[in-house]
Amino acid sequence: MPTPVTLIPGDGIGPSIADATVRVLEAAGADIEWDVQVAGQAGVAQHGDPIPEPTLASIRRTKLALKGPLETPVGKGFRSVNVALRKEFDLYANVRPAQSLVHSKRHYDDIDLVLVRENTEGLYVGIEHYVPSGGDPQAAAESVALITRSGSERILRYAFEYAVRHGRKKVTIVHKANILKFSQGLFLDVGRQIAKEYEGRVAMDERIIDAMAMNLVMDPNRFDVIVTTNMFGDILSDLISGLVGGLGLAPGANIGTNAAIFEAVHGTAPDIAGKDIANPGALILAACMMLEHMQQPDIAKRVRDAFVAQIQDGEVRTRDLGGTAGTTEFTDALVARIRG
Ligand code: NAD
């Protein structure tokens, strides 16, 4: 029985890279029944809603989605369609692997690390207000950084379990507990407790966020799995994609208890939309993460190996990686390579 998966092609370059990804997965023999749904601008165009009910119902049913980038329509009552989806399905873990796949003087050649970002708490809970004073209604502004013990436990446990499942050796807990003694202190305390349960199996290491930023730039190879709170994770995840070659190769997964959504980290790339030049790599790598999550690791490996071989051969690369191939040409070559 094929596994049902919701496919949201998305906006801008989304439909073209989603089409490429579906072709590649089919060529590799992935056992998937796609349920194609819309969101973002495409959702507004079709249903008058950026997160239409049929799309939500589909994800509730399949519990799995592969999502292209979405454009959030202005003035629809929320900050981002992506954030709203994370909230709706309580997708608490944002997982971003960074692996050196292309060799270039500007990037590291030997990075293989995974960042696990808490996705629902911290400074991004959206609890903010102005504080009036001396006749100025906006004399100050306050934002609450909410950290809960249960939220910390589930993300830290996820990171250690991820390390065990993927044969990784070390989890680095990144924090600012030296200054934010309560909120960041709670996160670190919980991390230390959970680390004890994994002693002998997964090593634990702690870093303060500012030192971590420097360490990642100067000596990234010493890290393996990194786990941190929402805003630090947001910043570090873009930093690590920059270390290995940029957004065209950066996949991400949003994992919850009842659903998981896999996506490319990049946006809709309006500057190149409709030109058949986008790199479908990030979404293809996100689909590989999804295949592993679906217990189809052999298919994931077949796709990833062929993809890596193709970009390392260097003959057929998209422009963002210094080649000349368009999306279709790149995908045709990858499909041919997979079919052998
Ligand atoms: P972007 O990632 O769309 O583009 C940044 C730059 O990277 C552009 O020059 C673009 O051409 C290039 N680029 C991105 N993906 C590429 C690919 N696959 N191949 C080749 N080049 C690629 O970022 P932006 O311009 O800041 O955002 C555009 C829109 O995307 C906005 O509406 C934003 O809200 C949305 N967005 C969505 C998501 C998401 O759905 N996950 C993430 C980020 C931004």
TrEMBL record:
Q: What is this protein called?
A: Isocitrate dehydrogenase
Keyword Secreted listed? The answer is no
The Swiss-Prot or TrEMBL record annotates one GO molecular function as: NAD binding
According to the entry, every stretch annotated as the Isopropylmalate dehydrogenase-like domain falls at 4-334
Query: Does the record bear Methyltransferase in its keywords?
Result: no
What are the GO BP annotations of this UniProt entry?
isocitrate metabolic process; tricarboxylic acid cycle
Q: Which UniProt keywords apply?
A: Oxidoreductase
Family in the record: Belongs to the isocitrate and isopropylmalate dehydrogenases family.
Q: Which PROSITE patterns match?
A: IDH_IMDH
Species whose genome carries this gene? Roseisolibacter agri
